[in-house]
Protein 1
Amino acid sequence: MKTDLSPRMKVALYGLMCILLIPFVFPTWWMVTSSVKPISDIFAFPPDIIPRQFDFSTYSQVFELQPFARQYWNSAYIAALVTLGTMIVSSMAGYAFARIKFPFSNAIFMVVLLGLLIPSEVTIVPLFQMFLSWGMINTHWPLILVPVFGAPSVFATFVMRQFFISLPVELEEAARVDGLGRFKIFWTIALPLAKPALGAVAIFTFLHSWNLYLEPIVFLSSTQMFTLPQALTQFTDAYGGAMWNIQLAAATMTALPVLVVFIIAQKQFVEGLAHTGLKG
Amino acid sequence: MTNLAHDISKPRRTFWTMERRDAAAGYIFIAPQLMGIVLFVLIPLGLVFWYSLHEWNVLANTFNFRGLGNYEQLLRDPALPQVLAASAIFSAGLVVFNMSLALLLAVLLDQKLRGIVVFRTLFFSPVVVSLVAWTIVWGFLLQNNGGINGLLQMVGIEGPNWLRHPTTAMISVIVVQVFKNVGLNMILFLAALQGVPKELYEAARVDGAPRFKQFRRITLPMISPTILLTSIITIVGSLQVFAQIAVLTQGGPGMSTTVLVYYLYQQAFQFHFFGYGATLSILLFLIVAVLTFAQWQMRRRLVFYEN
Amino acid sequence: MHSKTFLKSAVASAAIAASLAWSGVAWAQDAVNLRMTIWSGNEAHLAMFNEIAEGFKETHPNVNVTFEPLPFENYTTTLTTQIAGGNPPDLAWILETTAADFVNSGALAPLTEAFEATEGYDMADVSEQATALWTRDGQLYAYPFSTSPFAIFANNDLITAAGARTPADLIEAGEWTWENAFATAAAVAQAGEADGLVVRDFNYQVWQNVASIWNGWGASPWSEDGKTCSFSEPEMVEAMTAIHDAVFKAGAMPGPGENVDFFAGDAAMTITQISRASLLPKEDPFDWDLVPLPTGPAGEYAVVGQAGVGAFANAPNVDVAVEFLAYMTNPENSAKLAQFFPPARSSLLNAETLATTNPLLSAEQLEAVVIAGISNGKVLPGHTNFAQIQQTVRAELDALWQPDADVAAVLANVCNRIAPLLAQ
């Protein structure tokens, strides 16, 4: 498929992609431009593609109205811990399900897969009761423990299992013959080879944690503890009306760093995944 | 082999045969994940089932055993057929549209073109944009006097009142959801496309097979495992969408976009019928489980393996 | 008889528990932490509430009150999850639409006695009209800390440009009726520069906001006791026919699926609560006015929206919570609250106090709209299990918002669908 294209073909492809881009880019553009508009201009119709006036004070107001830096840190460290934790838990479980023969492994795998199937609305009430009894309400523990060990990590385990299945078994056989233990093999041979799959798991997990909305609003109650998606809802005026421009400035600041990371990491990410060939 | 002999020479360790040691290692490796599943999935699910046998009004603080009463109510619920039909249409539409768009974008982005990285990023960007901002903008665009009908008017078409007719409302909520998340599937497909060995195409070119035929005969079979994986994720995900429906249509007009998870959310959290909400949760869970199991079984027939 | 004895023993045991709790507090001075869920994240609000909590500390040094802002869109959901999970807050703001659910469920602690026992509280000062929604069997279960009247904002620039009569003209001539209001709106819409009248936050979904119109016809969604549906009564059919005509025949109101913002200068008039004056454009402003709702066939009327605050009966420190509530809503602190929330106390209902709250409004506007509105206003409709009724009616009314709808038939359908829900 990857032949060099004729110039005419190239122009056609660029044109097609530009048209397809409109629905993807327009909302983002609106979010960014509206964040510097006066509030009365945001809902004017038709919307101004380029703001008539720029008011960057919204960006400083974000930090004045909420402990936004603190909330940023909350989201960042939770997402980092969840990503790291998920990579460890899922690569170990994925490796075991793919490589190690132990009784009931298939049955257990099926049970674990159940986690993929349950919407978080279904289990939120019992989970709340559980964390309440452990005294973990209004702490970040539920937002870390559930994703790392519970349902959200199952997808990661699934990806890792598929990756390790596709890895040639000969590499490990040699080490086993040399008398290396399972953990050593996993740590020194299998895991380094799994970098691409781990990269994919990392990006998906990070995004999931970064965008988590229902759980923080249920589990957290003080603004100092809030995460970003939850903080976004807090920019309201004295009468409860949303301060849209400030909220959108905050939303822009929430999205941009993730996009920058994606730009930097996307090549390795895509190529990494390409070599794994996720198999069913 | 030397290792084995070594082991036999030490009778003290015969209990720890290779198999046993492996099995122990296996259990240790899966222990964190398995405990998490028991604690955060199975026990809560059991509790949800327990709730579903009760009449639970949170505000009135009543929790009365009802046996299978909630399940009887489920069978008699006049709204349920509509809700299930809306869910089926929503999920089917979402999966078909999401997968085809993701594949199309992946093929386009797989080309050797200058600046392709910029395009990849832009197509991916909605994934990280705030859901609130995303829904507001689309709410605007889909108004009767909104951006989309404005565009249509320019080319002389009178656009429909998108969110106000059952059919177009359903199309709208599907499309809005797909544009937001298609980036993830697009990346998975892109990776799969790049993983197809180049030699296969070269061989086909020597045989003079046209591009479309190459795509159908080589590309599709080679990426079929990814198609299966993404379709499972997408269908499971589609049954869990409701935030945008709540904002865009509130499940209307009539009940036309009230999907199962939104109905569940309404019953439990808005109407305070936690017991019945739990019953709907169990139904949702069973549906997802059956669908996933069916897809998993089909993989043997549809998915091509190289080895 | 049986239930009565049960009640008695419940009251007795509650009293014992209360005195035990009280003596416990007085004896050990245990730290008590109260938690109030609110739906405002506004820092000025939080500063004011914290100030009130500090004031309470002077007499109750062991009591800490924290205010927990939840997102407005998910407010009731989050609150319900906390209650279901066994962790109810001590105090909570309550939306008017869920008032009946909370008040009738028994989840809230009764307030009347505690309020009357509080020195200087002056219960008689609190307007009875305002507490009606929050009262059951003569007992107050939540205090309406915000009572905000609905009124019409008008864009006189647009209206005069279209050659129509402004609301002020019509009021002066004694002709401020719905018929003329719709005519003015239609004239502006026909001029083509802007739309006519917008019922804010209605969106052809939140139908209870249309009570601000149909009350002018004397219509109501259900009977006083809430048992019988009155959507199909002649008043409602007439009112809805007038609205339907205004939308689809005269074009006086933007149709379903059309987003029009008055405050961006896109409509001649809007019906909303006075607090929305904060949205009026500061730069590049238009000539605006605030007027009471027009008269309908049933004469003059007013409509208010409310928010209440109650204490949860099952929370461990319910007595302290009720005491704090009494302190928070006493005359002195009510004056503070009135900075942001229109008060239900008649002693505060004067143009002077309210002018500080609403610096944008003139004394006449305050007098005509706010004071008259709060004193006579009917509260938006509410009902036990309102959320389910709301959704059911919403789904049926979708059929009404079509150009060729049969108004009477649709409204009859509404009644068929909600009759069983109302009877429960």
Protein 2
Amino acid sequence: MKILVCISNVPDTTSKINFTGDNKEFDKNGVQYVINPWDEYALTRAIELKEAKGGSVTVLNVGEADAEPNIRKALAIGADDAIRVNAHPKDAYFVAQQITAVAKEGGYDMILMGKESIDYNGFQVHNMVGEMMGIPSVTPAFKLDMVDDSTARLEREIEGGKEVVEVKLPFVASAQQPMCEPRIPNMRGIMTARTKPLKVVEPAGGEAKSEYVNYSKPEKKSGVKLIDAENAGELIKLLRNEAKVL
Amino acid sequence: MSVLVFVEGLNGEIKKSSLEAASYGSQVAQAMGTTATAVAIGDVHEEALAKLGEQGISKVLYDADDRLKQFVADAYVKVIAKAAQQESAKVLVFSNSNIGAAVGSKLAVRLNGSLATNVTELPKMDGGNFIVTRGVFSGKAFADVNLTSDVKIIAVKKNSTDIISNAGSTATVEKLSADLAESDFAAAPKETVMQDTDGGVLLPEAEIVVSGGRGMKGPENWHLIETLAKELGAATACSKPVSDIGWRPHHEHVGQTGITVSPNLYIAAGISGAIQHLAGVNSSKVIVVINKDPEAPFFKAADYGIVGDALEVLPKLIEAAKALDK
């Protein structure tokens, strides 16, 4: 089974977010980058399936050279090889076109990724890739198992419940917890990752359909109003009469 | 040229998030000097459809195909694409739900359109631009995005649009048939299981959320969270550590890598307010924090706070909530 796992290179969840250049650009200064946490579920599950059923796991990133340390990390966790499409990921549509081009060439049985990236929170790319390739996309999935060699059984979250879906290979799915326990690289993995193939390819044309023109941050709260713990019930009255939310 | 809004039904009624999308869509239509049409699919009574007039919708297209009562992406996409073509829609509006965003993404490819999800404000249209504001960096920032294609698709973040209610206005309801084939249902779910909320409120749609963290000291104390939630008509939620150690199910985990909520009122009991948790809740209108540590970072993001042990404070809140006129 050939599995393609798409990963994004994103600011660590503890990062403070700032902008530069008149709020037109994200300020990378002092920001640590990690593999998008949602993508780690897709990566680990892909490796588990490979270990159980045989096959290979290829990691794909659409991004610039500064993503390579995290691509190597994915190889250290257990992917076999990697492809980087050398382009700034302009928007979801652009990224989906690049993934589709790589996926069509590689003939993968399964294309997995996280449900969204924690930087742009699009929740778009997986469904776009499914539509561009004309194959099913199951998102966001929190369970993925093989029923037989050509059929997968997934559970996906819907508002207020879940759906159980069975699809034939090939398909696209996006992952979220509790699909698996994301792995961290061990020393042996880190050593072998250095020699695993990482191929850099140029983008297959493609266009963006949106432009990010400006950024802003949420307004700060004006300050907390403290209520004495002994008179905690007072809070409920304030929420009704002052904040008017009850 | 018109604005097309996709509305989702649940148990015969239109979801609150879809009433917000309808209100958003009709305001966009008004700004563009056109009308808003809704396309309804799924489990919704026909009487509920005409009432969309109250949200400024002029016409509702309804596909009553029974097979559409459960969500099947390919079939939904086909129905909405047909409605978009029939109405010459240039702007399509969805709720930013798992269904809305999924269908919106597929339609962006099929209609060659620009898509923005997680949108929080009405578009600014001038000089040929069509700029929407959307939440990015998991609640830590907003971005203004220009949608450059001819067709624009917007998925509106829940609880970010006030619902318009022009009492008594009705929409005309017309049947729509997209001539769906058996193959459009190939990826239909085998089984759909809804959570047993025990008469409670679903977290993604909730206007009030009561959430607990490690300061609750153990799952055996969760009845305090549940009782307060029940008194206030709220949904229950939890922090990441609480779902990681298995005190509560994963679908209740609110935060950067869980679900993002934006209710009118978020009550956090025994949650210190790590940056990842704040990211998931900071667009809530009013935040209440109960924590015994006066230095807990959550107090900086709160509107109201009580410094005290959640296990002692919650019973007092429950008592006060019981005394409210409902």
